[in-house]
Structures are given as structure tokens and as C-alpha cells.
Amino acid sequence: MPSTVNFKSNPVNVNGDFPKVGSEAPAFELVAGNLSTATLETFAGQRKVLNIFPSVDTGTCAASVRKFNEVAAGLANTAVLCVSADLPFAQGRFCGAEGLENVKTLSTFRSRAFVENYGVDLADGPLAGLAARAVVVLDENDKVIYTELVEEITEEPNYEAALAALK
Q1: Could you write out the DSSP letters of every residue in 143-154?
Q2: 61 catalytic per annotation
Q3: pTM (predicted TM-score)
Q4: pLDDT per residue over 64-102, tens digit each?
Q5: Which of 20, 87, 90, 120 is the most buried (most CB within 10 A)?
């Protein structure tokens, strides 16, 4: 069932079913920085913070990667996964230039299944085809323990609420 978010106060339709707290996280296949395939199983036994956003080349998206990198250092048994449509080369350049080593970047460029299965597929508007801004937090068993589909794409997610779900 489609939902709606806003981009610069203009409504944008989002396709797919956004995960609900208490549900099992959908499986995924994303592209890691070394061009290998990363799956949910790649991070088995770890808690996971999925920081989902349109592109690291925007100020708000870059800020979210920086913030999650900062807090990731203090999170035990937790993988912070930054997911966008950016190519792994661009993600790697950004993290390298910023000195970000505590997050893992993953790309949707080989498959649209992630944005569809996680309910973040921007269906229209200027960012159509990219992912809506969202945070999904999973426990060690891949159960969804927190979600936020950010209402205004140009705004940052609620970091405090996402991190509180890990306590």
C-alpha cells in the first residue's frame, strides 16, 4: 500500500510496505564497497541500524552518515548500514574523504528489490527511483525493533529514538 512523504513540502508517493515493529526484516541483496553482495545474513548475530537515504551527495544524507558514524563507535555488536542508490565508488570516496570508518555503505544499484521490499521506493517527484529517507533498526535475530519513515526527505531522522531502541 503506497504511503506519502514530502520533498521540500511537496507530497511524494512511496511504494512498498514499510516494515512494522515486531515483524521479521525482509531479506536483501545489496552491493558492498568491494562490489561483493551483502545480505542480511552477512551481518548475522549482530544488531543492525539501516540508515536508508536517497544519495550521499546531498547535505542531509551526508549529515546522517556522519552522525551514524559518530554514534556507531559506541554501539556493541551493531552494524550500521548506510543504504542508498549511490555507486559503491561514490560511497567509498565520501567515507574516505570524511574519515568515516564505523559505518558500512551498501548500494541498491544492482537491484530495486530492497527499496520495494522495505517500502521506501520513491514513486514520483524529482527523486523518483531513489529511496525515501528512513531508519530501520533490527535486533540480533533480524526482528524489527524500530522504524521511522522520515516525513520530510530534506530533514534528518530522529537519531535519539533510533538509538534508544538499541538500549
Answers
A1: BEEEEEE-SBTT
A2: yes
A3: 0.95
A4: 999 999 998 889 999 999 999 999 999 999 999 999 999
A5: 120
H helix and E strand count, the chain: 4, 10
In this structure, how many other beta carbons lie within 10 angstroms of the beta carbon of residue 11?
Answer: 10
User: Is 30 within 8 Å of 106 (Cβ atoms)?
Assistant: yes
- Catalytic hit among 61, 127, 149, 153: 61
CA distance 144 to 146: 6
Query: C-alpha cell of 85?
Result: 542508490
**Strands 47-52, 134-138: pairing kind:** antiparallel
**In the structure grid, which three cell numbers stand for residue 134, read together?**
528512513
User: How far, in Å, are 27, 87, 156, 157 from residue 128 at the CA level?
Assistant: 23, 17, 19, 20
